[in-house]
Amino acid sequence: MWFDSMRPYAPGAGKFALCLICLQIIAIALMVNATIAFALAVSVAAILIKYYKIDPEPLFLLLMHGIVSVSMLYDPITTFAFILVIVSVIFTFGDCDLPTERLVIFVISVTVPAIFGKVAASITCVLVGVAIILYRLRPLYPESLALLALGSLAITLLVNKVVATIVVFTLITILTGLYVLNKVKKRALEVAPVTTQPPPRNISSHPNGYLPLSNPTESLDLHGHSVTGAMKVLHMFLQEHEEEYRKNRSRHIRHVTIITGDTCDNKNLIRPTVENFLKINRYKYDVSTEVPGLVKVDLESHVL
Questions:
Q1: What is the pLDDT at residue 7?
Q2: Can you list the alpha helix ranges (DSSP code H) found in 137-197?
Q3: pTM above 0.90, yes or no
Q4: What pLDDT score was predicted for residue 249?
Q5: Alpha helices of the chain — where are they, by DSSP H?
Q6: Which of 99, 108, 115, 298 has the CB geometry, 3.0–4.6 Å to 284, for a possible disulfide?
Q7: pLDDT band at 210, cuts 50/70/90?
Q8: What is the mean pLDDT of residues 54-60?
Q9: Is the Cβ–Cβ distance between 159 and 74 less than 8 Å?
Q10: In whole angstroms, how large is the CA radius of gyration of the chain?
Q11: Is the keyword Transmembrane assigned to this protein (predicted)?
Q12: Are 140 and 152 in contact (CB under 8 A)?
């Protein structure tokens, strides 16, 4: 079902309430002053970056592209004047190293609206933004999507107050829809009749609640996956077992095993990415010193 692929992005009760409060505060501020609403959106985005330790570079590229592109489409003469002033100041007084990627994105953001008409330039700028998201923000975690939503809202607030209001209520609708559908799906799974029920597992036979690597249902082997594919599979695997553990702690095993592979050849990026994901999401985990590339995760540390 299409919604099964969206469930990893559906918020829980706590995050849903927090996101809803933030969006409502921005909506109220928007009724008073669009500048205040813009400042609130940027502040919430900064808090998300700090709290979840998200790499800000891709977001900076996307934000720079969005602001410059929108400014060029809205008022190219004034934008050119500001760019000229900023470049002159940097060239005269600044001694900073400008990364090639930033320079390329900046040049594209300026030249595309200047060369093409508004319609063609708008489509091209959107495609460039999508390319930045796909190639620099992968894999897309819920936190990254939340930042993209806030960034889009912030840019819209600079352009048009009415459109920004529509964006706020659209985000509230999407957020509420995901939350409600996730609750309905969970309830349907809980009341669904069980045709076959496996015999209860003997948890005491596995010290500390860990299962052996040979158990196919409680371990996840990430060999053969790309980094993006591995993180998507890992997210779904952990969410599935957290739900099972939450429903029946006495029957479901508390720990799961993730097989990432060894990093001795410095080519395996899956293991550090997995460990970073577990740290950001505050999982308790243990990296095996005996078996390279073996990570054991404690579900209890993440289950509310």
A1: 64
A2: 142-159, 161-191
A3: no
A4: 65
A5: 13-32, 34-52, 56-74, 76-93, 100-115, 118-136, 142-159, 161-191, 227-247, 270-280
A6: 298
A7: very low
A8: 76
A9: yes
A10: 23
A11: yes
A12: no
